[in-house]
Specification:
Blueprint: H1 2-7, H2 9-37, H3 45-75, H4 80-87, H5 92-105, H6 113-122, H7 127-139, H8 142-152, H9 154-177, H10 186-189, H11 205-240, H12 243-250, H13 257-265, H14 272-284, H15 289-301, H16 304-310, H17 316-340
Helix pairs in contact: 2-3, 3-8, 3-11, 5-7, 5-9, 7-9, 8-9, 8-14, 9-17, 11-14, 13-15, 14-15, 15-17
């Protein structure tokens, strides 16, 4: 299969797409067969937990592979170097909006936070615009969107993208207005890179398709353990946790549930693959949408490793401002959706 992908990437895509469609629509009957063969009694806690895991694991993997392939192609049009050139010279609010939207499709992980930050500063990108990008990129990534679409449907996925963009744009704008450049470590402004003078060679369409396959191999290879653990935890919650328990702990009636969910979520570390299956199970057991969204956004958007890494380029006061502004935005969104839904 690997040789086929390398030699005939376009032909392989044409063959794999019908296979993907067939597998996706056969998941439910295959799950029913697998559960029935095990001899588990329908309606029991263990049976429902097993059914959840057997159905959701391949479903999420299939969705991830398809969307990551597409996003891998899109990303070839937006390298980090090109992204910072696009954002350079933009006004604050327009830059916040554009940076947040670019953050969805451009390559980003915690380990790249520092070089991206330095590159943006060198290119003259305003600090608030840079933060809009740094917030949107991990929070509204393709994994989060795929999992939300697969588990909850397009309306919830669109809701998450919209609220995530709102938080990234608003938080970046506020940070920009606070004029906190003095809280960036001095050595960042003393670096001068020659990257701006380098010419970028435009890849061919074949190169872009190969990049899509590479993205699938790289990202799925990294996140599948988190996905396995997350869906396993979600299956346990789905099968064993009483509905009244979660409704009381994370329901609308508890006014303190949203800030507590954010406080708990901020120090936790997980990516979308690990936390969203857990969120799915929490919602099924009676947790409110706003509280659950707030918990998920705090875990994904305020990643502890990213915050620790950013300490190398930001002074502690700016780290606290960053976390405080984003957390406040997440809490507001949580309360808002608890009122609406």
């Amino acid at each position: 299969m690997t040789k086929l992908l390398e030699r005939y990437p376009l032909g392989a895509a044409a063959l794999l797409l019908p296979l993907w469609i067939a597998l996706y629509y056969l998941l439910q009957p295959l799950t029913d067969v697998i559960v029935s063969v095990t001899g588990l009694v329908p309606g029991e806690h263990l049976t429902e937990a097993v059914r959840f895991f057997v159905f959701e694991m391949p479903k999420v993997l299939l969705l991830l592979m398809l969307v990551i392939f597409g996003v891998g192609i899109i990303r070839t049009y937006f390298s980090p170097e090109r992204t910072r050139k696009i954002l350079g010279g933009k006004s604050l609010f327009a830059g916040n909006v554009l940076a947040s939207m670019l953050g969805i499709v451009t390559p980003f992980c915690s380990c790249s936070a520092i070089p991206l930050f330095i590159g943006f500063v060198e290119a003259g990108v305003p600090l608030g615009v840079t933060f809009s990008f740094l917030i949107a990129a991990p929070m509204i990534n393709e994994i989060a969107v795929v999992l939300l679409f697969g588990l909850f449907g397009w309306k919830t996925a669109l809701l998450y993208v919209t609220t995530g963009l709102f938080i990234a744009i608003t938080a970046g704008y506020i940070i920009g207005k606070l004029k906190v450049e003095r809280f960036v470590e001095e050595w960042v402004y003393q670096i001068h890179s020659n990257a701006n003078g380098l010419e970028e060679t435009a890849p061919t369409f074949r190169d872009r398709v190969e990049s899509g396959y590479g993205a699938v191999s790289d990202i799925v290879g990294k996140v599948w353990p988190y996905l396995l653990i997350g869906i396993g935890v979600g299956a346990g919650i789905h099968g064993y946790v009483p509905e009244n328990f979660m409704a009381g702990l994370m329901g609308k009636s508890a006014w303190w549930s949203v800030p507590v969910a954010v406080i708990i979520g901020v120090p936790l570390y997980s990516n979308a693959a690990g936390i969203i299956p857990v969120v799915h199970a929490l919602l099924e057991k009676g947790a409110s949408l706003g509280t659950t969204l707030a918990f998920m956004m705090s875990v994904i958007g305020l990643s502890l490793p990213e915050t620790i890494i950013l300490r190398k380029v930001l002074k502690l006061r700016l780290i606290f401002i960053f976390v405080g502004v984003v957390a406040t935005g997440i809490i507001i969104v949580g309360y808002l959706f608890n009122l609406i839904y």
